[in-house]
Amino acid sequence: MFGKKKPEKTNLEIIDLNEDSALSSDKNPKVLIEFKDVCKKYSQGEHDFYALKDANLTINEGEMVVILGPSGAGKSTLLNLLGGMDSASSGHIMFDGEDLTTYSDNQLTKYRAQNVGVVFQFYNLIPTLTAYENVALMKDIKDDTADPLEALASVGLADHAHQFPSQMSGGEQQRTSIARALAKNPRLLLCDEPTGALDTDTGKEVLKLLQDMSREKNRTVVMVTHNSFFADIADTVIRVKNGGIQSVVHNDTPKDASEVSW
Which residues contact residue 220 at a Cβ distance below 8 angstroms, ignoring those fewer than 6 apart? Predict the structure, then answer.
């Protein structure tokens, strides 16, 4: 298990992925997700291609995690496996002690509905529905969802409930998509380049909102990005390269999202 230590002279600690000894934390955080030798393999004729190979990692509940890497490194594969949107070829993916690799399609559907919220780069709002109606769609997926207006209020958009996406700015649309994801009360919030289509100032607002979800609401937030500046705000940074996890870095003193510039 990867835990947090308090180094004497630095805020960042690079974890040796081959280290056998367990690391403990003063706060004894609850482990939510574990990858154990996870591989995702595709066959192309007589050749096998690994989108992800021998991945090992641990994510604690309530953490904000940033997954960094260039295009084609395996970031999206990792995110899809975390969300139960894809299945591993081998290895084990544990969520709160349950092995997702043993789940049937119906069980994975239930896992996604009950535990996972997704925020996309390009919002994926339905243009003919208002912000309220876009958020209310979650009631078709899960019974015990939050009130749409409360979800919108949590991202500062209560006054925009009856506006259509075309009447909102890019930042407002992205906050609507976050409200939609939060309406499910997910334990795991997956964000795929959530600031990729936004300007810097608006991007900071979205990052701050996601960081507050982790710090104040104990949501586990996992964000995929190619922007290395976002590493400063994360509790844990996972670097992916050539389909493998290159390093896992724990940050004892992450910056506030408002301090980050890019």
Answer: 32, 33, 59, 60, 61, 62, 63, 65, 187, 188, 189, 214
